[in-house]
Structure to design on (327 residues):
């Protein structure tokens, strides 16, 4: 089949390996899924990137390649099946295989096109002890040309007769700036409160530099390191504690496994002001996606402290199963 190259002005064109064509607006390419909005459908089309044979767009994208290069530019038509022409700022035009393009986010002026968010919740009711557990998880992000802002909020409340209430909250905000190829600077602000470790509020501010070690159509892996400033307020403790820590972090995401995705984050904190104190924050999420941007998520979170200042519990963990919507 010869591709009709009479492009409709302002529209992107996608041709699939089975010969079908879609005309519309590319929303993004992420985790091996290309999303395109068309005038003739009420819902966006989600297409496996492996099923695309040709593509043309005049829009500007943040493009990430399997070589770990980042390009701000365009993805244009190529006569060769399974290829595209990529060009951009300080990146001379190259004809390349489509599987070299692992992520493409259009950069637009409107806020809503750069903003994504999700919310999920879970509720468990048990007759024994009249137990009730409620879970809430939210996340959001805003993406610009060279930087990204994201945030999250997680909460678990557990109430039952003849037992103390269990409360847990963790939240945070992150700012990442890509300053050279795959190198990025990061500022993290994280907050934790839980009754198991008697933490009224722990706030940790981190300055870090990281590198995108691996990025492909199946997964990504990044590592970072820096310094953290810790402020801790414990239940039944009058003094507020301050400390400094060396920080090392790893993030791994695997997503080309059907409708499943797997995300894990590990943060290690080595105290610089207290002897033999180490902290570990670990979170792991398995997510299954349904149509209409609905999903179910199973998550595990662990907080470990080898030397808690209040001589309380060294660790706290939680499993959460929630059902939610991404928008």
């Amino acid at each position: 089949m010869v591709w009709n190259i009479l492009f409709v002005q302002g529209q992107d064109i996608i041709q699939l390996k089975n010969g079908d064509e879609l005309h519309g607006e590319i929303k993004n390419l992420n985790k091996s899924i290309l999303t395109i909005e068309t005038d003739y459908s009420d819902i966006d089309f989600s297409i496996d990137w492996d099923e695309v044979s040709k593509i043309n767009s005049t829009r500007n994208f943040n493009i990430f390649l399997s070589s770990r290069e980042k390009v701000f530019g365009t993805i244009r038509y190529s006569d060769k099946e399974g290829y595209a022409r990529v060009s951009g700022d300080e990146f001379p035009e190259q004809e390349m295989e489509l599987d070299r393009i692992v992520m493409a986010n259009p950069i637009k002026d409107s806020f809503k096109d750069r903003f994504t968010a999700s919310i999920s919740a879970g509720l468990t009711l048990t007759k024994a002890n009249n137990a009730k557990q409620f879970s809430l998880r939210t996340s959001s992000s805003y993406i610009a040309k060279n930087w990204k802002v994201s945030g999250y909020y997680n909460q678990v409340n557990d109430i039952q007769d003849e037992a103390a209430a269990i409360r847990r909250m963790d939240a945070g905000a992150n700012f990442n700036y890509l300053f050279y190829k795959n190198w990025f600077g990061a500022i993290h602000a994280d907050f934790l409160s839980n009754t198991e470790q008697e933490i009224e509020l722990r706030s940790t501010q981190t300055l870090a530099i990281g590198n995108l070690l691996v990025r492909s159509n199946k997964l990504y892996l990044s590592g970072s390191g820096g310094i953290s400033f810790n402020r801790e307020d414990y239940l039944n403790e009058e003094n507020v504690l301050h400390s400094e820590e060396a920080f090392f972090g790893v993030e791994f995401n695997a997503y080309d496994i059907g409708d499943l995705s797997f995300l894990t984050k590990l943060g290690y904190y080595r105290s610089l002001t207290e002897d033999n104190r180490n902290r570990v924050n670990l979170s792991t999420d398995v997510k299954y996606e349904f149509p209409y941007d609905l999903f179910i998520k199973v998550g595990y979170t662990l907080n470990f402290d080898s030397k808690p200042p209040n001589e309380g519990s060294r660790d706290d963990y939680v499993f959460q199963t929630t059902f939610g919507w991404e928008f």
User: Anything to note?
Assistant: The two ends are 36 Å apart (CA to CA).
